[in-house]
Amino acid sequence: MLQLVQHNKVALGGTIARYLPDYPNASLAKKVTIEQLLTHTGGTGDVFGPKYDGHSEEFTSPAKFIALYGARDLAFEPGSKWYYSNYGYVLLGAILESVTGQTFNTYYTENIFRVAGMHSTSQLPSSGDKSAIPYTGALATGLKPVPPYYGTPAGGGYSTVDDFFAFARAIQSNRLLDPKHTSLLTTGKIDTGNGSYSLGLVVSSRNGVPCYGHGGSAPGVNGDLTIYPQSGYITAVLCNRGYPLALNAAGYIGARLPAG
């Protein structure tokens, strides 16, 4: 989205209605801005719950999410507080598709993955057995494979630690965004109660050392990418088991890195 802002195709103060004029809840669409979606302050709610469980493979596009969730009301007044909204990022994906005329998969591949040198990253699992299989269940009861995930603009894709590293290096070297918009991506803006959130990343500290990045999890999946700008260290941890295994490893490493 910040690439589109940089190229004057999207305005941070623009509303959902400006880019998705047919959005089902017109009142909501006129209130919530791009910046509020990016910072999780738009009050657009989440996607997980009974409607999503067992049907994740059906949500192959932002339009299908909007068809199911688009009519619902705001969870809170936009800008009044911070609450993580996967649905807000699905809406950003829909806006990206509307503005560019491309699917979010195609846009990511051409403008992020290829530019950053991420050759093993996709929103979809590889054919055959080339993708890691998500697993749930305790060791004592045996691991239980879960169905493949299909990536959305809010997450759920497939990658490797090498590609995570390439993505981090692309951010650091301003290959994805110019310096001004890289700063918007990496500078905290909204207090989350446990650090801050920029226009897309978590900005905090580990062991007293500033860092930024993002983590994520779902049943059988856990990952964390953290960049330490003062020292230049990057940690990337992926696990085909659930939260908090990757986060635990990332925190363990981060607490032992030299500060400078």
Overall shape: globular
From N to C, what is the helix and strand string? HHHHHHHEEHHEEEEEEH
Number of strands: 8
Reported for the largest beta sheet, the result is: 6 strands, antiparallel
How many angstroms separate the termini?
A: 32 Å
The count of helical stretches stands at 10
Strand content: 5-15%
Mean pLDDT across every amino acid position: 93
- Structural category is alpha+beta
Measured as a percent range, the helix fraction is: 25-40%
Q: Order of strands across the biggest sheet? A: 3-4-5-6-7-8
Q: What gyration radius follows from the Cα positions, in whole Å?
A: 18 Å
Low-confidence stretches: none
Report on the structure:
The protein has a six-stranded antiparallel β-sheet with strand order 3-4-5-6-7-8, with helices on both faces. The protein has a two-stranded antiparallel sheet with strand order 1-2. The longest helix has 15 residues. The model has no long low-confidence stretch (mean pLDDT 93). The protein is built from ten helices and eight strands. It is of the alpha+beta class and 260 residues long. The chain is 33% helix and 14% strand. 32% of the residues are buried.
List the helices and strands and how they pair.
Elements: H1 2-6, H2 16-19, H3 26-31, H4 34-38, H5 62-69, H6 86-100, H7 104-116, E1 135-136, E2 144-145, H8 161-172, H9 179-186, E3 190-191, E4 196-197, E5 202-206, E6 209-218, E7 221-227, E8 234-239, H10 245-254
Antiparallel strand pairs: 1-2, 3-4, 4-5, 5-6, 6-7, 7-8
